[in-house]
Specification:
Elements lengths: L9 H11 L4 H8 L3 H10 L1 H27 L7 H10 L2 H4 L3 E8 L2 E8 L3
Antiparallel strand pairs: 1-2
Helix pairs in contact: 1-4, 3-4, 4-5
Amino acid sequence: MPKPTTYKKKYCQMLIDHMSEGLSFGSFGGVIDAGLSTTYEWLKNFPEFKEAYQRAKSKHMLHFEKLLNKKAAGTNRNIDLGGCIFPLKTIHHKVYGDKKEIELRQEVTGIVFVEKEGEE
């Protein structure tokens, strides 16, 4: 018999609100008293929670982009640049991560690795 879930639909909006403040998916479990493995399991089992997570990630990215814009405009000098860039480069690495392209080709003499750095 499957174990009953502690998942509630209200967690979808709660997650979006949580991450829109710049807080992580990992810390959301602390808000609702659930473990990280539980919240990851919900991503697999509840499509509406997965959709909310995707929306929450966009809101999370927006939070840090707004902070960076304030820093760039000089309207808030107290913003820690590294504290904004780090989550963008790690959590949102597909958009902001360093790009490294590796090409693999086989030649008669063996395999040659060609490493390229640059943008997509």
